[in-house]
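Dear colleagues,

As part of the handover before I leave the project, I'm documenting each prediction I ran so the next person doesn't have to rerun anything. This entry is a single chain, and its sequence is reproduced below.
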Amino acid sequence: MLLPNYSGYTLEAGVDEVGRGCLAGPVVAAAVILPPDYRHQLLTDSKKLTKKLREQLRGELTRDAVAWAIGEASVEEIDEVNILNATYLAMHRALEALPQQPEYLLVDGNRFKPYNQIPYACIVKGDSSYLSIAAASVLAKTHRDDLMSRLAQEHPHYGWEQNAGYPTKAHRMGISSHGATEHHRQSFTLLPKQLQ
């Protein structure tokens, strides 16, 4: 069972990102403030959930959350400032978009760039430990998966509706056969040497 609160503050926002390791598409972050006594039997790291369950949870979370928001950093920004800084940018944009300012931030992972002097803690594997981070992981992933499915309709050769832009074999074969699109991250190694 995941924990509802880390800091003791009522307005504690969980923050997580998705898409750092992708070859295409933006990096997406979500920030979620849940009620301090929130409980959920099924909520955990989005990577451990089925697509169907993520969709179900997305509906429940957007309904139950005190506040939630999504932030993105574009492919151009990723190529310009690097993926780590673009991730901070997406996280900060999600926090900026929250309808109320959190008192404390709970960030998945081991690094974060401070935001608005709000105290924070970085929690490795936080999406498997705290409900608010798990909620952020679900909202970020469902948002990004939808986005990549829409882009897949314009660019059908890469399997984005299946792989969401991650470096799968099908995605790399698509790049090898059809070249890169404007949605591909030029600062990433799109093809391993043997496929170039």
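The CA atoms of residues 116 and 171 lie 39 Å apart. The longest helix spans residues 131-154.

All the best with the project,
I.
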